[in-house]
Amino acid sequence: MSLRLHQDLVDKPTTPPTGLSADTDISVTEKQTAAEPANTPPPPPDGGLVAWLQVVGAFFLFFNSWGLVNAFGVFQSYYQSDLIPSYSSSSITWIGTVQGFLLLLVGVVVGPIFDKGYLRSLVTVGAFLVVFGLMMTSLSTKYYQLFLAHGVTVGIGCAFLFLPSIAIVATYFSSHRAVATGITASGGSIGAVIYPIMFHKLIDQVGFGWTTRIIAFVALMGLSVSLLVLKRRLPPAKLSRSLLDIGALKEPPFVVFAFGLFFCFVGLYFPFFYLQSYFELYLHDDSSLAFYIFSVLNATSVLGRITPGLLADRVGGLNTLIPISLLATILSFVWIGIRDVAGTVVFACFYGYASGAIVSLPPSILTRMSPKMSVVGTRLGMTFMFAGCGFLIGTPIASTVLDLAKAEFWKAQLFSGIFVAAGTICFVILRVILVKQVDGWKI
């Protein structure tokens, strides 16, 4: 059973029909017959030592890209209380959202570079920028210095690491692609658990400067592993490719999916920035639990990045994403009514799980939607651009309706829930569109 694409998805009249298997995640371009040129790469190994080493290497790329972005909440709390207390929480939030925005936006440039075969160069440049940015952050004492070092430099470095971490794994796996991608994406959550704990344990002993430098050295060690094991499988594209695949913007499924990610990312990350403040100001709990709530949120996100992948390999990525996005929507609205510490901890556990799935599932879905594997990097970059715009504006806008002085969070919580709901509606619309193009139920 294969996906029937309308004429808009056909690049050239001579291009073979492209689509997706209803039973596997293998794109049709990977299952072409022997009648094609002899230099056509073989199908993905879907396992084996080399393939799983790519997962290890990509895991550390995710660990030191999304792991750092998701760990920004602990930096925000320190910046606001100690380093630059004269600045508003909204102003400090821009450092973290710009970091995440650049991680996603620069993917538009990184994608075509990856497609041309420069995997090792991308990882090398990304590793340098992340470590250099953290080192400069350790020396920063003013807002503009933190913005340039922690927000801009680290953000661009993370972008050079993030997209290759997803794209390289997608080329090595077919039926196990979703679970491999989920394991890779769990690196972001595990990094976001470890880095805040490191920060908390070291900040009183060695100060902010050395705490940040030690984090930089840990990142360098992990990225060195990635440089040792990552190996490109598919040959680079022979033809020069533009930064954008304009044809994708003519495909309704791609556009709806991109806007779904945009809306989700507008609302999804508010708890990752302000849950600790919620504990301290709204619940009046300034115990160590208030600090470790970020680790709880990210630890449960690990499960959310792996276990939905197991389900997606069986029932389809989009079929898995929709109910989990609905769960995140319900939790966002339920959070408004929570009034105690126990309920907030339960919320953090379930929300962390749902958010992890929303981050990890889209790449495998997009890979299946792409007409050919050679444009996966470019299309991933384009969808990340949409998600990055949502990430950039979401939390800062939410913080403008947030009143920390009065401990009034409900407006920002409502804002977050509405946009996650809008993203979920887009995913449902996408499912309706694709059901007309797929003979089977697995999408």
TrEMBL record:
GO cellular component, one term: membrane
Topology versus the membrane: Multi-pass membrane protein
Region (Disordered): 1-24
MF-aspect GO terms: transmembrane transporter activity
UniProt xrefs under Pfam families: MFS_1
Localization terms from the record: Membrane
Annotated TM spans: 49-72, 92-114, 121-141, 147-172, 179-198, 210-230, 251-274, 289-306, 318-338, 344-361, 382-402, 414-434
Domain Major facilitator superfamily (MFS) profile: 50-439
Biased amino acid composition, Basic and acidic residues: 1-11
Listed Gene3D superfamilies: MFS general substrate transporter like domains
SUPFAM superfamilies: MFS general substrate transporter (SSF103473)
InterPro entries noted in UniProt: MFS, MFS_dom, MFS_trans_sf, Proton-linked_MCT
Keyword entries, A-Z: Membrane, Transmembrane, Transmembrane helix
Protein family: Belongs to the major facilitator superfamily. Monocarboxylate porter (TC 2.A.1.13) family.
Name of the protein described by the UniProt record: Major facilitator superfamily (MFS) profile domain-containing protein
